[in-house]
Amino acid sequence: MQATLATRDNSCESVVTSGQQHLTSHHPPRDASPAGLLSIAEETLTEFLSKATGTAVEWVQMPGMKPGPDSIGIITISHCCTGIASRACGLVSLEPTRVAEILKDRLSWYRDCRAFDVLNVLSTGNGGTIELLYMQLYAPTTLAPARDFWLLRYTSVMEDGSLVICERSLNNTQNGPSIPPAQDFVRAEMLPSGYLIRPCEGGGSIIHIVDHMDLEPWSVPEVLRPLYESSTLLAQRTTLAAMRQLRQISLEVSQPNVTGWGRRPAALRALAQRLSRGFNEAVNGFTDESWSMIESDGIDDVAVLVNSSPGKLMGPNLTYANGLPSMSTSVLCAKASMLLQNVPPAILLRFLREHRSEWADNGIDAYLSAAFTAGPCSLPVARAGYFGGQAILPLAHTIEHEEFMEVVRLENVSHFREDTIMPSDIFFVQVCSGVDENAVGSCAELIFAPIDASLSDDAPLLPSGFRIIPLDSKANTSSPNRTLDLASTLEVGQAGNRASGDYSRHLGSAKSVMTIAFQFAFEIHLQENIAAMARQYIRSIISSVQRVALALSPSNLGPQASLRPPPGTPEAQTLTRWICQSYRFFLGVELLKPGSEGSESIVKALWHHSDAVLCCSLKALPVFTFANQVGLDMLETTLVALQDITLEKIFNDNGRKALFAELPQIMQQGFACLQGGIAMSSMGRPISYERAVAWKVLDEDENAHCLCFVFISWSFV
Question: How far is Cα 394 from Cα 403, in angstroms, rounded to an integer?
Answer without folding.
Answer: 12
